[in-house]
Amino acid sequence: MSAIKTKRLPLPTGEVIEMPEDAIAPMEEARRLYQKMKTKDVDAFDEFFALSTAHFHVLGKEIIDEKFVFFREHFEDVFTDYWITKGEEYIYEAGGFN
Questions:
Q1: CB 60 within 8 A of CB 53
Q2: How would you write the pLDDT of the chain (98 residues) with one tens digit per residue?
Q3: Total tally of structural domains belonging to the chain
């Protein structure tokens, strides 16, 4: 979660991935909608889901597949395969990649 706030993702290797400047505004909008969604704001839920789905379509399945390989390689010991697979299933369902 700190990566969402700081726009930096430290890897176990010591490398740090910096969020591209043009991705920060959409991330902040998604974060704002997510916070509203947690208060049971139905409109925020619909907007958050639409924004997420749009991101999945823009990225495409091939890039998402590559990033899940990377994520498993670097973070499986933290999140476990079970939770990474749950994230994959959510993204593939929302993105219509099934």
A1: no
A2: 688 889 898 888 899 999 889 888 888 988 899 899 989 899 999 999 999 899 899 989 999 999 999 999 988 998 999 999 999 999 999 999 97
A3: 2
Whether 41 and 62 have beta carbons less than 8 Å apart is answered as no
Q: Can you say whether the dihedral through the CA atoms of 77, 87, 69, 31 is positive or negative?
A: negative
Task: Give the containing element (helix H, strand E) for 9.
Answer: strand 8-10
Are 51 and 73 contained in the same domain? Answer: no
Query: 96 is written with which tokens?
Result: 């219509």
Token pair, residue 10, equals 């430290």
- Looking at the structure, do residues 42 and 82 belong to the same domain, yes or no? no
- pTM for the model: 0.74
